[in-house]
Write a structure and sequence with these properties.
The structure is a homotetramer of 342-residue chains. Chain A is an alpha+beta fold and 342 residues long. Chain A contains 6 helices and 15 strands. In chain A, the strands form 4 sheets. A 6-stranded mixed beta sheet of chain A has the order 4-3-12-11-10-9, with helices on both faces. A 4-stranded mixed beta sheet of chain A has the order 1-2-5-6. In chain A, helix 2 packs across helix 3 and helix 5 crosses helix 6. The interface between A and B is large, with 40 and 40 residues.
Chain lengths: 342, 342, 342, 342
């Protein structure tokens, strides 16, 4: 029976989770899925909205960590340079990046008539994993309309996990992977702050998974043919801590520690990317003032979000796996559910 | 009358150019253009083929330098991680990146049935500048077919320069920009090696241009309304020197010196990117051996390609500008030709 | 009773260790210690020699990963730029970096009269951790002579571990830390290659340590006062695999995964650095040829050293801790031995 | 007759200089020199104080750009990670880095008894160029006392330029190099901000120098034997603009454009480093609050300091060269003055 890590007694680290134990514990963040299931097709898009306004007009401060750059994501270079995100974030499969870009550009153009006229252009943020083991990725079935459907489905509250949206065709340590999420609450100066993570988990070799209690579940051989890792994992981290982009970059890096604790070594063929943003102090596109005020975390306290990032990433991956059922895909390919092995 | 920099007596640096003074002086490299001209539309694609074979099967060693990361290019992250390019390179406008990806993915899938089945996916390399000053970029007129047309047009020999292909709508220092190319011959141990550069030149503020002889031509005010730079410049560098990817990255960085010599300071809104590859020692996708031999340049001699990279970049930009005629674009926008100011 | 991880039944990962399970399993690599023990003083130097020749004349190919840059190491910038190491490597405490530089410069000048005359200068490589919890670091007791003593003591064979050399004053997860080492054998194309790691382990918060079997030993409260991490960990990785420097950089990065598996999140105040080098294809300082041949690993096989790097790092840290006895230092500070808690 | 660039009619760019046209136009910044002149010895230290207080207790926000990493500077890694500087900055020669570290550590320990006891350690910032062409660098004549003398000499007001302090033994484009400085005033929202640069100029091949007016002065052959560049250039940039460290890093990068405009291509053997800091919003070491307020520049206005950085760097190098007289050094080595060639 599928569930969440804590339902199985698996606790990652020491910080308390938020009310939903989800990225949506960060106020304003919304998640939407579009899932395609057809013969030989298990794929989809997942959208993460940093807030409910127009992200082009109110950009969010962000940082990027390329844990291993074997990937085809679009938009990361500008996020790293400017420390900001100016569209919703889309997760899809490797060959859906173009459709994702088109959807985000289309929405930005529709909402901002000045783009390409009196102001510059727009940087779409689309990340991806390869779902070709379970799904016919050569069919290139994901369309602009599918990306738009994921964006339109975005909502706060409980986040559907497992084999949904961009998680439909994922594999993880030889088991079924998918979308998962988790969060942590951080107490600072008497106030509570939140840090949430959402992962698209498609990484890890069969036999390498280590649970927080030391168990090492291994899928049956038929589900995990020996092969070099050609997965990937995307980690999206949201927080309501006030941070500058350099700090967000440092925090994003710690998501890699969460992956390593599960047994990953960030394999050659795995595009492992973490993107972190804060909902605090958005950057106004048409800002008139030359100098703008900003609150930032005292760097001496940054171990708190570092710890939260590692813990939430580790738990989000387990949530992705434990929510995903035993799945048969294209050409007889099969991924068992981790939940059936606990 | 348009021409090339040397026709105007402008010499950049001290190394001799190759026979064509073009990126195609590097044996095997081919360039193709697809240009769209219509009411309010001046745009296009330019394709650079590292060699005439299947680039997925025989990848070229490469390095990337992000001079300023305000840009929407696709594929750079994996080039940086793996030090290799596995598709032809497409240059287009900012909103044509998705079409470019689709074209490259389509070609790679058609030529390699194992992609997405028994092997991984493919990393498309598409770079861009914003041609929105002269062309209606919101119209999103460039299609997958246009990208394919540029790829199909690729040929060796003389490279059409100026307002062609992805250079159709470019602006540069308030003048008309475009596509330009130049090359240098490098003597080493009694052998001749070649280094060629192709630029998509769309950067620089009016009034900042400095010619190699110290002149500072300025366009008339109507052609250069005061505005923050929202340009970009893409530099593609090819060589037949044997190099490892770290060396190619170092060489790519020196393209920025060539830009700065023209008066650029790599403005905030300018996505300035250099990609360098060598045609030597391609990486075989289905390589069976665990260890592969490679020749590399003695690092003590690397000033030679450093110098060539800076000189050829500087000259390629001048060639792009001097080949481009006085041009009127959308909504009465106008860019004069630098050639008319010399 | 102190010992090594395998003596306690602790196995990290799946690859087999080399004969010594030490960095000295890589032929030619030598390690030497100089330890200072006095009232309130527990400190020292550890030297790693990539080979027994003059490293300035025969440099080794290398890569660097700055896992967390809160550190005062000297020499890393040039290693990253040139992909080469040209002196032995010294590990010391934070305030001994200058003494380490002086020792390495002195040796290089003595052995190479052309330095500073007909050739350039020399890049010393000195890394450090803060041993101020157990030792009086303000006393600045380590001298150039101590660094030279460590260099002179360098030998192959079994490596003394635990509270020796630069490990004398280390702390790790609230326990006594120190110097540790481990290795892995990698089979490729019917040949055996070796990868060895040596760590200076001084990182981790009490309560965060996770053993490979899932146990979580916690030191008594007196030994682990709650405090922000001000440790660090240095990882030196040697291999006889033929690699280019970009590959070595990728491999160095995976040492961070080994640390994370132990419970680290690469804390703010912890300078976590990995340096990787190969003994294959040294770079001859006075190389006359313009082009030099090189063998490199097929990138498709790089998961093998990735896995070895993560496993050996994890095990080397455990070896460092388990070899170190219960230790009392300055001002009543105390670190218990992990070996006493298993 | 020596002088400054503007005395010779050489103007770099378009922004106005500050009252002193020096880094000391940024309020609080102080510069001090210690020069050693003896038979065969032309060397020294130059100190830059970001402010007159204890820099460990009030750190300044900073960014680093490694233009070319062939250098032996100490302290840059931590500046890049934390975005802050916590000691004065010392410039010296390549083999004086250890003495510089010792001086800075000694001062920090003396002023802050809690270092190494209740708080962590301290990150010294020492940068260097190789003065071995004119001076006997193997003699290692610079001592801790010399570094302290430079620190003690630090003052505001006019900065001595040319062959003083760390500039004593510098060479530049085959001419005598040295220490130079320049500044720019930037108007923003009706207020004036300042950006100043100080360079230690020791780079460039004879024959490559280009003046802002297009002239290309070349030293006589005896002064510029053909040889690979083994120089370096250090650029220290100070400003009173409010900036976050990511912005300072972007600004530091533009110093490289100033160098390139002079004809540099950032040669292989040249350690070209830029460090930028702001005097605004210092970071309090013992900060108690978890969240701290900060003003930052609107990123859309960052072209202003970009331009200022490039211009001031270019002019500071010319000032360094034009202030330096014809100089004879060790073993008959000779560098003519650029001022004698205009």
């Amino acid at each position: 029976m599928v569930g969440r890590a804590r339902d199985f007694g698996l606790i990652c680290g020491s910080l308390p989770p938020g009310p939903l134990n989800a990225i949506t514990d960060v106020a304003g963040v919304a998640v939407g899925h579009r899932t395609l299931r057809d013969t030989g097709i298990l794929t989809g898009f997942t959208a993460i909205l940093p807030h409910r306004g127009d992200v082009f007009r109110e950009k969010v401060r962000a940082g990027v960590e390329v844990i291993n750059g074997f990937g085809k994501s679009a938009g990361l270079m500008q996020v790293a340079e400017l420390g900001q995100i100016e569209t919703p974030i889309l997760l899809g499969n490797t060959f859906s990046v173009a459709a994702g870009i088109e959807a985000l550009v289309g929405r930005a153009l529709a909402g901002n008539p000045e783009i390409g006229r009196s102001t510059g252009t727009v940087n779409s943020l689309v990340l991806e994993c390869n779902d070709g083991y379970l799904s016919d990725i050569r069919a290139r079935r994901l369309t602009v309309a599918d990306a738009e459907a994921a964006l339109d489905a975005a909502a706060g509250g409980t986040v559907p996990e497992g084999a949904v949206g961009a998680g439909a065709g994922m594999s993880c340590f030889g088991f079924k992977g998918g979308i998962g999420t988790a969060s942590r609450v951080m107490e600072l100066d008497g106030r509570s702050f939140h840090l949430g993570v959402l992962v698209q988990a498609n990484f890890g070799n069969a036999g390498d998974l280590v649970l927080p209690d030391g168990r090492r579940p291994v899928p049956a051989a038929d589900a995990a043919p020996p092969a070099p890792e050609r997965g990937s994992v995307i980690v999206i981290l949201a927080t309501d801590l006030p941070l500058e982009s350099r700090q967000l970059t440092r925090i994003a890096r710690r998501c890699g520690a969460g992956l390593a604790r599960l047994g990953a070594f960030w394999g050659n063929g795995s595009g492992d990317i973490a993107v972190a943003f804060t909902t605090k102090a958005p950057i106004v596109h048409h800002e008139g003032a030359g100098i703008v005020p900003l609150d930032v975390l005292n760097e001496n306290r940054i171990d708190l979000p570092f710890r939260a990032a590692a813990e939430a990433t580790q738990e989000a991956v387990l949530n992705a796996m434990l929510a995903a059922p035993d799945t048969h895909g294209r050409d007889g390919h099969h991924r068992p559910s981790l939940a059936d092995h606990l």
